[in-house]
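Good morning C.,

I know you're traveling, so I'll keep this short. The sequence:
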Amino acid sequence: MTEKRKLYVLIVVVISGFLVLGIASSTLEGFLFDQIPYNYTSYISIPSNSPDTASIDGYYKLYGKGRDFNFHIVLPGAEDEESPFDYTQDGLNGTGRVNDISITYGTIVSLLSGNFKKALFNTKLAGNYTMACAAWKGYGNFTNTGQNFLGNFKIIGLMTDWEGTFNLAPEDMHMALKTDYILYPHGNKTPENIKEVKKIYYM
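The tokens, ready to paste straight into the viewer:
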């Protein structure tokens, strides 16, 4: 074999190796992620709508294994202030799935240091979820590009429907869920009935 052919074969082998490594890494990454169980609990705060009322505080729990996850939000006492169609003491329950994930160097460093929140924001992912509370049900999608964690949602209630977008961002020691949405009487989405809302929830 001539030197030229040897070089050609070497280049083909190297390129093939990179392709196989890329495919294997992606498969391995997905397999490893699917084996990881997690259970994370923290607080959530919903700011008041007026100076005369206090904020509503509670906790949320995120748990699951790999791509499939569940979440549960409880706001103690909110059932006394909200309509039973909107909230009961059972809280909000939801399920979701991560359809695409790309673990970055930042993900690994964050996990090794025990910083779950930072690992979340450093991981590129996309997925969908469903949720239910009292008499309403909802669904949506989310995407984290590594720079922005964005999503959308729609909630269908007995009396009112909501739909909009959110941006989840780290803020000091917390996570801020910045929402921009509209609400309107159930099934009656006409311009005169639409109310626009911008609100921030802290987690």
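Safe travels,
E.
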